[in-house]
Automatic annotation (TrEMBL):
InterPro entries listed in its UniProt record: Metallo-B-lactamas, NDM-1-like, RibonucZ/Hydroxyglut_hydro
A Gene Ontology molecular function term of the record: hydrolase activity
Alphabetic keyword roster: Hydrolase
Listed Gene3D superfamilies: Ribonuclease Z/Hydroxyacylglutathione hydrolase-like (3.60.15.10)
Pfam families: Lactamase_B
PANTHER family given in the database record: ACYL-COENZYME A THIOESTERASE MBLAC2, METALLO-BETA-LACTAMASE DOMAIN-CONTAINING
Protein name, as recorded: Glyoxylase-like metal-dependent hydrolase (Beta-lactamase superfamily II)
Coiled coil: none
Record bears the keyword Hydrolase: yes
Transmembrane segments: none
Residues of the Metallo-beta-lactamase domain: 25-221
Amino acid sequence: MREKLQHVAGRVWLYPHDPDPEAIGACVGVIADDRGSVLIDAGNSPAHAREVQQAIAAEGLPAPRWLVYTHHHWDHTWGAAAWPDVEVVAHSSAVDLLTAEAERPWSHQYLRDQVALDPKLGPSFRARALAVPDFGELAIVLPHRTFDDALTLPTGVELRHVGGSHAPDSIVALDPGSSVLLVGDCYYPPPFHLRTDDDGPDLAMARRLLAEKHAVSVDAHSAPRSGS
């Protein structure tokens, strides 16, 4: 296990990102509520999801009832099959993107073959191979509920579509009472294999989010940032 859950603020907890850049292990947010906790992202594999489950149990937090995908990329969704009894929520555009991913014949040989065809896939696909030793347990889970612009969950967690060049289905999740905004990878540049020399972080989006002046903001591959 990487480490235990970190308390961010209010009812928001975080299973932190993997600091090893080759692992591509995004953080997982937990917004605790007696009606059922809200997970922000699923983990990058069933094994990663099980680590988070153990950490939630160790803290005595309510079991998750909702699982929100900040976007469709593998390191945010491949752990979903290991989460029982949750409703998966995502932007409507994630459905076709995840359906296409589910139709690919994922295996270690497939990863090697794809990297041979496009070496730029190497960092991502090597990380997938490390994350999933047994592809027999991988199942890509499509969302059970989708939305277009915004959605508020029964626990008060607010979801909002922001899009961007990293992933068109990117959303942010706000817990108003805790003043914590979880942004996934929304302002990141495109994935490495699609990136050009002119691509960089979406600074305009980052500034818009900072201007909302939440107490803490969390992206998926960095430590939480206090203030704005």
